[in-house]
Amino acid sequence: MKKRSLKMLLSVTMAVLLLCSMGLTAFAAEAEPEYSISMASISIEKTNIGDSSVTNFNYAGMLAFKNYVESASSGRIEVNLYPNATLGNQQEIIQQCMQGVIEVGTASDSDLSNYYPNLQLFTMPYIFSDRYEFYNFLDGEYVQAMNEEIADTCGVRIISAFDNGGFRNFSNNVRQIKTAEDVAGLNIRCMQSTAYIKTMEALGAVAQGISFSELYSALQTGVVDGQENAPLVMLDNSIYEQQKYYSLDGHIVSPCYFIVSESWYQSLPEDLQEIVIKGGKLAETAARGTIASSEGMALTFLAEQGVEIYSPTEEEKATFKVAQEPVAQWLREEIGTETVDGFLAAIEASRTGEEAAYVGTSTEAAAGGASAATGYIVAIVILALAVVVLAVKAFRKKPEEEKS
After folding, report:
1. Residue 210: how many CA atoms within 13 Å on its side-chain side?
2. CA separation for the pair 312, 319 (Å, rounded)
């Protein structure tokens, strides 16, 4: 009797243990992420400012995104970070996002404009007076409509927008730049894009095409008088060691983005889509804040190193705007007068708290898209009718088949 009771006790115990182990296995399975995504960037994790080391703004955004998405999804989404160009250069990251190979990545306006030319609008000089005005425009309905068109046409969705390291400014060894007249005659190294070259020419400077890796020696030997870059970039390769003057004219500020694969995003359930979007907004906040604080540290460091920093007055800044129209005219020829003028009007409307409609794809292209959509619907209807006809025929044949 005792043996039988002991056997029953052992059997019950084993059953309970088996059920518990099954429960633990099920729990472990639930704890596994449903989605494991890759988030890639070419940026480094840290930026050195003198003896201090600060988090790079792109990496700060990546960390914020990972933290929010993983916690808000209760572990359903796992985010793996790949900075330092681990998964390729900027163009490769964008292409992999388009193909769905990488779920999330960073992109600059210049790289993304290869697939969406209207982003060249941001290369117009002196269209934003400060960072607040720039961010306010990025957050407005005009840019949001632009972003939707990018998602539709390029296969990547913009979930964060911030500036790519700050406003670009002039530095040189000849004289302090206070007005547009002070730029005239200077040999300035600049990015080799049409917009930048036209900006230099409009201000009377001589645009020089020199690789960034060779810039320090070019400044040291006097091949060029100066260059144009954001404060944080002045620290790269110790450019500041060869520049006496730095003027905060703020000629161009360009956007930088976190993008997600549109096909991957659309495959997510709605609750996870919302988490990704919110994660993007938090990443945006982290990147913007990191840029602003790091820029302040960089300017303080430059001043401590003997670089004379000058902030032009509003009246002095107004003199630089002569460079805007030549670039605007070039863009009108490239992407259309209506698009360029609509962009400038939208910026003015944003300053007064108004909104302007986005002028994106041309009317002809939009009409073509509508025709394509109509054709697609017609094709579906025809296919459905064909299926019905075949089904009816099959039904009529069935009795005959059963007789045979």
Report:
1. 21
2. 10
- Residue 67 — φ and ψ, nearest 5°? -60, -45
Q: What is the model's pLDDT at position 199? A: 97
Collect contacts of 125-129 with beta carbons under 8 A, ≥24 apart: 125/195, 125/199, 125/251, 125/252, 125/320, 125/321, 125/323, 125/324, 125/327, 126/250, 126/251, 126/317, 126/320, 126/321, 126/323, 126/324, 127/324, 127/344, 127/347, 128/250, 128/253, 128/347, 129/250, 129/317
Count the Cβ atoms, other than its own, within 10 Å of residue 149: 14
Amino acid at residue number 400: E
Encoded tokens for 276: 């990704």
Q: How far apart are CA 17 and CA 23, in angstroms?
A: 10
State how far Cα 81 lies from the chain centre: 16
Give the residue-averaged pLDDT of 221-245: 96
The per-residue pLDDT for 359 is 76
Hunting for tokens 């990546």 — which residue is that? 62
Degrees to nearest 5, angle at CA 126 with 341 and 310? 170
Residue 233 has pLDDT above 90, yes or no: yes
Mean per-residue pLDDT, 162-188: 97
| 274-306 exposure pattern, b = at least 16 Cβ within 10 A, e = fewer | ebbeebbebbbebbbebbeebbebbbebbeeee
CA–CA dist 325, 378 (Å, integer): 47
329: number of Cβ within 10 Å = 13
DSSP β-ladder status, 168-172 and 255-261:
unpaired
Distance CA 218, CA 195 (A): 23
Task: Round to whole Å and give the CA distance between 114 and 27.
Answer: 47
The DSSP code sequence of 324-384 is HHHHHHHHHHHH-HHHHHHHHHHHHHHHTT-------S-HHHHHHHHHHHHHHHHHHHHHH
Provide the strand spans (E) within 148-244. Answer: 156-163, 168-172, 187-189, 206-208, 226-229
Residue 204 falls in which region: left (phi positive, over 0), alpha (psi -120 to 50) or beta: left
Q: How far is CA 244 from CA 166, 187, 217, 223, in A?
A: 20, 15, 15, 16
Pairing of strands 226-229, 35-40: unpaired
Task: Report the alpha-carbon distance of residue 396 to residue 388 in Å, rounded.
Answer: 12
Name 141's Cβ contacts closer than 8 Å, sequence gap at least 6.
355, 358
| Cα–Cα dist 288/165, whole Å | 9
